[in-house]
Amino acid sequence: MAPLITTSAREFAQGLPGGGGLIGLDLGTQTIGTAFCDAAWRIASPGKTLKRGKFTADKALLAALIAERGVKGIVIGLPLNMDGSEGPRAQSARAYARNLGVLELPILLWDERWSTVSAERGLIDQDMSRAKRAERIDSAAAAIILQAAIDATTGGAF
Q1: 66: part of which helix (H) or strand (E)?
Q2: Are 9 and 149 in contact (CB under 8 A)?
Q3: What is the pLDDT of residues 22-61, one digit of tens each?
């Protein structure tokens, strides 16, 4: 059976009846920001920023993180255009999700509009230097994406 890949928070939650930890991914062209949340889906925290390479290498790194953290589901940022339409970057995120289907975990594609801007503001508010922000922006954005998804999933905003 093919793994669940959806944009519906309700469908995603139903695909994980026992809950479990989640990983959030912010897919950049050169890096992948990661974030994690607890099994109760309360708080998302930034994880590592991975250097993006060939998919097989990315998959191996992600599979190791998933196994290490006991992750049961994946949330991937879906880069929609400001009008809500999908362009080439959204199509690329969908293709990445399909490829990650080999991990056999439910996948939620979540609207990531404004996540990087919000992450940047948060890091600036922490008085973080430009260099440090550049290192952490993708994982901070992944945490924002994951937090928005878990808030919608647990708060009923389906």
Answers
A1: helix 55-69
A2: yes
A3: 999 999 889 999 999 988 888 999 999 999 999 999 999 9
Contact 24, 142 (CB under 8 A): yes
Tally the domains of the chain: 1
Q: Across the strands, what pairs with 78?
A: 111
Name residues whose C-beta falls within 8 Å of residue 90's C-beta, 6 or more positions apart in sequence. 78, 79, 80, 81
For position 148, which CATH number holds? Answer: 3.30.420.140
Structure tokens at 101: 């289907």
Can you give the residue range of the structural domain that contains 80? 5-155
Phi, psi (5° rounding) for residue 17? -60, -25
CA distances 146 to 1, 109, 110, 117, Å, are 26, 10, 8, 15
pLDDT tens, residue by residue, 62-86: 999 999 999 999 999 998 888 888 8
The first and second tokens of residue 132, run together, are 């440090």
